[in-house]
Fold these 2 entries.
Entry 1:
Amino acid sequence: MRPPVQLVLSRAVFDDEFRAALKANPEVTLAEFDLTQQERELLKTEAGVRELMHVPAMVSPLPDMESQAPEVASAKIVPMAELGFAIRVTPYAIQHADGRLEVSADAVVERAVLPPIPERAPAGPLYGHNPKTTESQNAAEAVRQAAPEQRVEAVLQLINAIRSTDS
Amino acid sequence: MSVDIYVVGTGITSIAQITREAEEAICDSQHVLYLDPSPGVAEWLKQRCPVLTDLYALGYEDNAERRGFYDRMAAEVVAAALEKTPVTLAIHGHPRVGVYLPQLLDNIAVALGLKIRTLPGISALAALCADLGVDPCTSGLQSWNATDMLLRHRPVSADAPLVVWSVGVVGTSLHSDAPSRPERFVPLRDYLLRNYPASHEVTLYYAAPHVLAGPSIETVALGRLHEMADGIHRGTTLFVPPAYAAPICDPDLLAALDDPAHLESLIRR
């Protein structure tokens, strides 16, 4: 008897971060439909995934997934949001009488939470540097006072002052 | 509003895409400093403003940090503005698309109390949309700088078009005119292969630099991207079409889109 699928995975989210999330949750049972053999092996060896089912991809409208494809529908209850991922399973799957499960390429896991924004993320001109600090203002005054032939060098000093003083 | 520094775009295809308002700014300026090596541009500018400085002539040096060139260029523009205003910085393409120099000027202008006005130009993105038939409003658009994408592991969604800029200078902030090794593009290829199959066809694009020349459009399977090293240069942009269509996630909204009653709930009459 095969285990219930908790998560349907596609290569759309197959990256280092996702594998790390899986590694922290080795009990999750996965199904996939478009991974290469190499990627399947990576999931097992690198992310520690124990169960990895393969479901063939196809498109077949399924109005009532809960009853007709319970394995896929149940994936929605896995609390993956805390890992930074959510599950989006669109109604394109069908389970045949012989037990074969066919899932469309629309059944994917997707990111629910963007990575945290670094404190010094790019945020405008010169990436957060501040042209209004005392050091910058002193350098700006030096530019104003500079003789014409010294202005280029004075502006270069101002740029350095702006750059060296984070806002 | 008085302007100290106009920042204008000269478009992609030589002088054919310079806008009328950019021309007015140039004619109004005491000094034009420009970054556009396209044929005919210097002559065209000279006819409209006799005081002209080619910022490329400041010289890029091999193995030097690109940021140092931009600092020097910015200093020249500001020094000119302090001498006599207004001045114009004329930049190839759109002056705020893929150009660091205006960002630098913004901060210097704040420190010195100078007023900058930017006038848009035809960008490489506009040319790409025209040549490749891409509509960012209907299909969405992802846009990343190649090095930044690798540096920060920028998210890529395979259900929307992706534009990767500065592919030809990926992996370093130092300048070099030397051709790239194929290995240079392997990290970029591998990063994209996380989201797309190796057989996915991508396009290496370079907008037409002159009205007599067409754009360069080379299509290659993503898995073979590195094999195109000889044809990838500083101006090359990588376009990756979607691998699949994004599914409808809100069937209720879909059903309501053509419903007059729903429209009534959205508007006031």
Note: Residues 67 and 104 of chain A are 17 Å apart (CA to CA).
Entry 2:
Amino acid sequence: MKINFEPILKIAAVKEATRLQWTTRRASLKDKIVSNFLKIQVFTIIIVAGLLTKEVLNSGFGFEISINTLFTFLWLAAVYLFKMPGRVSVIMSLLFISIIPFFMLFGAQKSADQDSILAYLVLVLGILQIWRETLLAKENKED
Amino acid sequence: MPLLWFKKDLLIAGGDGYSLLNPAAFADSFRYVWNDKLPNAGGVVLSVPKLIPMIYFWSILESFNVSLRTIEMIWAVALFLLPGLTMYYFMSQVSGKGWARVVASVFYMFNLFVLVAGPFQDNIKPVFIALPLMFSLWIRGLDSRGQIRFIYPILISLCSIIYTGSNVNPPTVAIIPLVFLLYLVFRWVNGRKFLVSDLKFGLATGIWYFWLNFWWEVNFIANILGSSNDIKKVATFSALGTGSVNDFLRLLGSWGWRVSHYLMPYFPYARFYDDFPLIFLSFLIPLLVFSVLLYKSRTRLVSFFALLAITGLFLSKGGAEPLGILYKWIWETIPGFWVFREPFSKFTPITVFAYSTLMGFSVELMANSVSRWRGKFHQVGKFLGAPVLPVCVIALILVVSYPILNGEVIWNYWNGSMRTYHVKVPDYWQELKDWLRGFDSRSRMFLTPIGGYGVSYNWVNGISSADAPATVLIENPVLRSSPPMSLADGLVGKAYDMVSANRADEFVRLISLLNTTYVLQQNDLDWRYSTDALTPKESEKFLRSRFDFVKSFGLFDQNFIAKIPNGEKKNSLRDSLAVELIGRPALEVYKMKDEDFLPKFYVADRIVYSNEYLDSLAAAASFNDYSLRTGFYSSADTESPKLPGREVFEKPNEILFQPERVDLTGAKTLIQEEEDNFAMPQASVSRDSPFYFLVKWKEKNLLNKETDLVTKTDLELWLSSKRLVEIEGLLEGEKSALIHETFRDYRELLGEIVSNLETLARERSDAYPLVAKANVFFMKHKSILEDIHGKVTFEDSDSMIMESYSRYRAVSFLLSQASLRYYLVNKPKEGIYSILFREKQNLQGNDSENLGDLSFSLDKTKISTVSGIARERGWYEYPGIYLNSGHHEISFPEVKSRNLVEDGSFENISTSSPTDYSFDAIDGQKSLRIFTENYKNKEISIPISNLVRGLTYRITFSYKTLTGNPLRVSMWQKDSYDSRLVSGGELVSPLYSFSKELERDTTWHAYGRIFSWDSSKPEGVISFLLSATEGKSVSLIDDIRVEKMSDLSLVLKLNNVSKAQTPVPSLEFMKVNPTKYRVRVLGAGGPFTLIFSESFNSGWKAHIEPLENEEGQTTSKSYFSGKVVEKQGPESYLDQNPLTFLSQRYLPEERHHLVNTYANSWYILPSDSRGQKDYEIVIEFVPQYYFIVAIVVSVIVLLLALGLILIYVFEIASRGKAKL
């Protein structure tokens, strides 16, 4: 008995094509996300800033931890994707620190607290990055 | 710089640093691990390490007749400058440039942490000195190779001597090994391959450190481990999550930084740091510190110190965000980490150390960068880089820490109980000390009035002190109020209660048990700011009634009073200083009457057992039944917690049984609180979820872990509520099978809860809060069941719900006794008891209850015996009550007492002001009407009189809100209320007992609350405040009642359990030193109980020796017609080979007992002396011998260390090699 594989092959081909299409789409989406990451991040920062402002205006908003965590993870992602050196994180942290007295002076204590938490978290990240860079540089030198 | 802090002729002392009045005062007593001077009735002192360097520094200089002020100045200079010098040394080892060293050193000395911690912090400062030095040696040691490596552990250990005294506070010194460990980890991660050799190096350092410090470690570690739970209980204060990172970044963050006390903030200059320009300048510090990370030419150490800085910040901020949850987890999980309950003060030195070095590196790199400017800016850059930039940074550091520069860091204000740190000890204290030296400097002295932590003294400048200055200023051991760390502290506290209750006889009885000879009335203690303290006049009356006046010192005259700072805002309180003190001596010495005095050693002539130990003792102290030499024993520390079990050795003559008071008043208050804060659990995983088995598993585990029935029932209560919440969730999905199953679980839990509660209610008075809680929960359960009744469809649901209701009622019944005074008697020894009771407070007149004709119920049966027999001091006795050894209940009906509000029904309210009353009344014809409108407040105050401190009252009234806002009711002490009004609505002194906003209810509503009166003043005020927004607010109040809730002391007495009487032998005792006594026993005819009135400690051991000759002894005192003789001889530090304790045959510990709630007793049998009637009992504190042996070991190790260093130096010199 002769078996006609054609319909089966066709189905398989269609399935494969669909799979490839989805893989391509996913890759393309990933590329798009990666290539537009800066924009996405800026957009997110704006949202975060908006939330912060809202938080300042409405006390007891309760988003403190999530905002800090969100920002730190975003920053971590940016560091990883854009291969930013540790010094950039340190500069970011120093910027945050320099803003704290202004917040405090104008009575925005909650924002000052938020700002200092971010400063600390980004500073921790920066210092760990710098340490890692030092270790990598040393390894390269030894190689 | 520190010299500028000192004012002419004045010392700097106060607060926790009160011992700076003269630390050398502790030199003698700290040579012994048992200190009979400092703790109440003696105790192990953990401050022995303080001998080096601080106490000996004072002692040595004092022996050269250097004045105390000069010594303190030298000490201050050393504490301030030495950290800078060691930091300079450290930087010189790791950085080339001089400016970096100077900047780091300056920052290490002048920073905001030093400002907050205080420049005299004698625990932290020595650690500051040692840390750079030791860390420098640690780095160099780890990097070194060959023979030289063995010398570094020795040097590091020798450096540890610098901060020996800081070891009294282990968390303070813990940062040093922590920094060492972090550096080791850093090295290993950085790829160093000397892991094993590094570990060996660390181990060698640890071993040298251990043996060199062995002399203080040996007892300190044993005792701190033994007492850590007690310390944990007392050290309730914690500042885990205070402050914000923005403060920690600036090295601020202390819990008290922005906190005020009374009229002033703790740090008056703190506000400037939140304002221009200091806010910017202080944030420049972390900016400068971390900017070092921006330079590429930074060294490897910069990474380490940056990591150290963020670690220090993480630890010092404790539970504050970010990552605070991680710290809290560590705090709760790691054993012993609870000591870091104020992480800011313990860990910030790590940050300071890291900041200082980073600051040095930062300035160095910045200066290098600037000085490398090219072209036309080259010269400018060089100039800026070398002197200008570092000098500017130093200027910045100094400006930021300006209070250290100008001396503001030393507190110099009047703020109620907080007085200046610039002090001068009044001459009368020296006169007292000199007089006591000639008269009697060994006997115990009880201090009145009650003091405690943070009490102030009316000296010319004033002083606030964490402990009584008498501990430093006189040589006699003192008994004073202190946190209940030891058993004797509890008894001392009980004695002060007797002062408050005006019960002089009982006070005398209690302090006689403490071997008190004198009472020192300190009229210079500012009673106005000491809770429970009697005024000087009241104290005089109290003491003169029962003591012999001996001598007075100092005199408060107009001139003296004028020099005492008195910034009190309340006129009456301010003026009372002069009114009370003028013409009164500053110090008065009273002596116990001979018939009241109990010597340090005596033989008990009567034995009494009791269960609730201290309370029973206090009650027994008021009975005339007991001779002075009665020994009171607790049955609570025997195997059976309630039954006296010591008959094996000592036949008790009587047993006192203190029933457990069921705090139904507290339970009722708790119901109010539970109702206010009630929350049902949430069921995040539904019963029909596939993961529900995890919920069951977790709950089962939790229940299995609970061993205590109260906590287990509490958990079951929570779980039963959860089941109901689950049922509510299932109702929406109409899953009747699951509902049935869940309800079955609920019923099982409910059955167990009710059964447990019924058992607990019979046996444990501490279970009643849980009964109250269950009652509140069951009210909620009932409303849920009413909601779901009819919606559930399974079989027998109606009967099951009804059954649940009946179980709720069973629990509610347990609380139905709430109108009674209710006591539990658990497993007393079977016999015929007398029940004795009296009012807790010494009340007179209408407040007093007729206890002689009081009906009470035993096990729900009314007792109809003869009337109570009136006994001494307010006691009434009802004899002939039979109790078996089961569980019993005694209840008394609550007494209706008179209303303390004069016209609580408002019937006599003036008819001329019709707006003030209404005919809408719940009691009588009228009610009080309160009216206000248009954003105004209206406040009505109703006076209450005859309130008594320590008593519990109930306030009840009816109210309704006709329109507008609801009423707020608050209860005030009258003076506080008046001062509040004086300040035009500003709450200068918000000392109200409670304040509550009432419900907005347009029908009559009843309000009730129970409160305790804590003020010594009998006048109070009930305040009703009504506010209005737009329009009107009108409320009515009626039938206000404030009534005393009666509280009884209750004791059960089982008489003549045994009539065992043995001949009481004569005693002659002599103190060899604070850790050793010799007691000669003459004419012992049988077993007897020897009582030693020093705090109980299992380290006290007794052994029996043949009689020695009495050379060198002189009779000093004789008591009980010569039956007890106290002899005195020269003090001997060591009168035998310290190792003999190893072979000594001590009396067995089973016969060493706790007596009189704090003291030692030994039950001596004739066989102990092998039938001899005359012999000597030597009582010694054995750990003292460990201490002496440990001193010898440490001295040998020290000599060995110095010898090895010398050998090494000579070897190097002979080889002509380089320095270390």
Note: Chain B touches chain A through 28 residues (CB under 8 Å).
